[in-house]
Design a protein that fits this description.
By secondary structure, the chain is mainly alpha-helical. Among the domains are: 42 residues; 35 residues, no CATH class. It has five helices and two strands, in the order ββααααα. A two-stranded antiparallel ribbon has the order 1-2. The chain is flat. It starts with 42 loop residues before the first strand and ends with a helix. The mean pLDDT is 83. InterPro entries: Ribosomal_mL58. Pfam families: MRP-L20. GO terms for molecular function: structural constituent of ribosome.
């Protein structure tokens, strides 16, 4: 009968254990030397109130082209364009200016809008008279009471359609409204 004896393990040194760096090595931040200290050309002048005025002359003489107020400066000279140069084509086609609306058309627009604002909306009048909706609203706007009535009617119609929504759509709409509050 053979007995097996186990060999004793050799102690493992911690230097041989594999590990990873806890952070990447960084270079220390650059600290530029102070240009005012030990400058042989600098002139120091003590001022009252514990202040020091330091004057350093520029490192080299400025060229005449560097002055923007100099008449010889290229920065002040106007840009030269050749006489025969043509411009590139425009990106969009130019719209013709809308024709000026006559006083008769303005009076007709106001009259139609005042008679039946529910039928003659700003959009219908704009198509009828070939102008913008903004122009119609500016020239033949509704009274505040009529605006409120129109908005109330629109909101009732919207509410009627919302009542037909399913549970999922209602929930999604409520989530959108809640998200919009935090904008």
């Amino acid at each position: 009968m053979m007995l097996h004896t186990m060999k004793a393990r050799t102690p493992v040194r911690l230097t041989f254990i594999r590990s990873y760096a806890t952070r990447l090595p960084e270079r220390p931040p650059y600290r530029a030397p102070d240009p005012l200290v030990n400058n042989p050309n600098a002139v120091y002048e003590e001022l009252p109130g514990d202040l020091t005025f330091i004057h350093r002359p520029p490192p080299s003489a400025a060229s005449p082209e560097s002055y923007t107020t100099s008449p010889a400066s290229p920065l002040v000279m106007p840009v030269k364009t050749p006489a025969g140069a043509t411009l590139p084509p425009s990106v969009r086609k130019e719209k013709p200016a809308p024709p000026r609306m006559s006083d008769e058309d303005l009076a007709r627009m106001r009259e139609l809008r005042a008679k039946n604002p529910r039928y003659w909306t700003a959009g219908k009048l704009a198509k009828e008279l070939n102008c913008s909706q903004l122009f119609v609203r500016m020239m033949a706007g509704l009274k505040n009471s009529e605006k409120k009535a129109a908005l109330k009617k629109r909101d009732e119609e919207h509410q009627r359609f919302r009542s037909q929504w399913g549970e999922k759509r209602v929930m999604n709409q409520e989530i959108r409204m809640k998200r919009q509050q935090y904008w």
